[in-house]
Design brief:
The complex is a heterodimer of chains A (267) and B (254). Chain A contains 13 helices and no strands. By secondary structure, chain A is mainly α. Classes of the chains: A mainly alpha (267), B alpha/beta (254).
Chain lengths: 267, 254
């Protein structure tokens, strides 16, 4: 230690402050009411409905994101083209957009008075105040989290592996499915966990675009807000579930990050 | 991390700490922190500007603001879109005796130009009509339920079945209406005035109209109770009352 003593002490204090500040609100959620009351509150119809809706809508959004996002990320990771930097920036933008801006944007684009409102109406597609609208909002805010991770994961795949597959007669599509995806599996899974976590927490865009109705559009975060005024314990209980699920997702990301890239060409 | 970086971090923490200190002092001289119902936003903003009060106002559903006060948040002044929420807080010793300072009128609202779809309360029961109302506990939602309770059972049930969104405050209902996301909603006449032509109001039959009275109270343990009292006094008589009338609020009932 010696000369570096005070400096290390300062660093330790800083870390302690950071830790306390970030952990206290999370701990308070579990301590404020106690586990018994939290569990009882989760038995309520509204809480279960909200959690079930959150599960369904986030999984639907995640499926869309993975299905469309994976090939898109692969293209961005493996090809050079004019304006690629602009495209990458554009799809990352929702990452930093305030949720209220996302909500307004979705209304301006897909709302009944929006740019594509009449077109959607003609096609018989209803989004606003519908469960499908929730999925649209979740997809919008969560997709960039997946795209970024997947793009980085594909970029890290050894190009020699892909070349080897092609030399051995695999088509471009087959190399993508059999070599690139398994090789980038860890990064892709981490991206899925991050996107899922973001979708689970979505609040502002959902409220503005899809509204709030139990069983149809009131996801867990919206139910927390609705319960805040009427039943604080119920709001705490739902929050506790979201904390637990989010923590599990984060842990998954960390564990995936620790395992080395999966072999890949095993298929 | 370099020593310089660590030093600047400590400086930053110090600076933020000091900032908080001087902020607290500023609150002592004149600034009034106001928690008010969403529907009061235009009137209170005009009022604060007209008399040059340094008011830091936040607007949300009255019930959410009451819940914040129950959780220990201490604005100087609480103003709700009913008289029962302030009365409950008073009963629990959290605010002083509330004063009723204005009245409002609940109306049925529809996006402008939709008179053909929605002309009266009974149109709400038709198939395919979509409605937004306030959530339970939010004054504008409770008033709407009061109106529906005054109708016959089958009709009120048919209307409730058309409700598509339970909004946390009246601003949410206005937003859904002005975006054309719903066909109709229950809001206050002042919201229709503030929407500046985007919405049209359909008056409710007099026998169904709920009494809408706004209550305000000084929060116990607030930093600036004097400023809060003066703010309330101005709502009863003076620039605040003028701003309320201009926004469409009526005098306190009774």
């Amino acid at each position: 230690m010696g000369r570096r003593g005070p400096f290390v002490v300062a660093l330790t204090i800083a870390l302690a402050v950071v830790l306390l500040f970030l952990i206290l609100p999370v701990v308070a959620i579990f301590v404020d009411a106690g586990p018994g009351e939290l569990l009882r509150s989760l038995g309520s119809e509204q809480a279960r409905e909200a959690l079930w809706l959150s599960l369904r809508t986030t999984l639907a959004a995640l499926a869309i994101i993975v299905l469309v996002g994976t090939p898109a990320a692969y293209l961005l990771a493996t090809r050079e083209f004019r304006g690629k930097a602009a495209v990458t920036t554009a799809i990352e933008l929702p990452l930093v957009l305030p949720p209220a801006v996302a909500g307004i944007g979705l209304l301006a684009a897909f709302g009944p008075e929006g740019l594509f409102g009449a077109w959607l109406d003609d096609a018989g597609i209803e989004l606003v105040l519908q469960t499908t609208g929730v999925i649209v909002a979740l997809t919008f805010v969560a997709a960039p989290f997946y795209l970024r991770q997947a793009q980085a994961a594909f970029a890290a795949v050894d190009p020699n592996l892909l070349d080897a597959a092609r030399t051995l007669g695999a088509s471009e599509a087959r190399a993508f499915a059999r070599v690139a995806i398994p090789s980038a599996g860890a990064g892709i899974s981490a991206g899925m966990a991050l996107a899922w976590g973001r979708a689970l927490g979505e609040f502002g865009a959902t409220l503005m675009f899809a509204g709030s109705f139990p069983g149809i559009t009131q996801t867990a975060p919206l139910a927390i807000f609705a319960e805040f005024a009427t039943d604080f314990t119920a709001a705490l209980a739902l929050s506790a579930v979201l904390v637990a699920v989010s923590a599990a997702l984060l842990l998954t990301v960390k564990l995936i990050g620790r395992t080395p890239l999966l072999g890949g060409v095993s298929a | 991390m370099s020593r310089a970086a660590a030093a600047s971090l400590l400086l930053l923490v110090g600076a933020v700490g000091c900032g908080g200190g001087s902020d607290a002092e500023a609150e002592g001289d004149g600034r009034v922190i106001v928690s008010a119902a969403s529907s009061l936003e235009p009137a209170f903003s005009t009022y604060a500007e007209a008399v040059g009060i340094d008011a830091r106002q936040s607007f949300a559903g009255s019930d959410d603001l009451a819940a914040q006060i129950r959780q220990g948040v201490k604005p100087d002044l609480y103003a709700a879109a009913n008289s029962s929420l302030p009365a409950e807080l008073h009963a629990d010793g959290l605010v002083t005796k509330p004063v009723v300072f204005a009245s409002n009128e609940l109306v049925l609202a529809a996006p402008a130009g939709s008179a053909s779809t929605i002309g009266s309360l009974s149109d709400l029961a038709r198939d395919g009509i979509t409605i937004a109302i306030g959530d339970e506990g939010v004054p504008v939602g409770d008033y709407a339920r009061e109106v529906l309770a005054g109708l016959g059972r089958p009709e009120s049930e048919a209307i409730l079945a058309n409700v598509r969104s339970l909004e946390p405050d009246v601003a949410g209902i206005v937003g859904k209406l002005s975006q054309g996301a719903v066909d109709a909603g229950f809001v206050y006449i002042t919201d229709v005035v503030a929407a500046d032509g985007d919405l049209e109001a359909i008056e409710l039959p007099a026998r169904l109209e709920p009494e809408v009275a706004y209550g305000a109270a000084v929060v116990e343990g607030a930093d600036n109770p004097k400023g809060a009292k003066e703010f309330i006094a101005g709502l009863l008589d003076g620039a605040g009352a003028d701003a309320l009338r201009e926004a469409g609020f009526g005098p306190p009932p009774g």
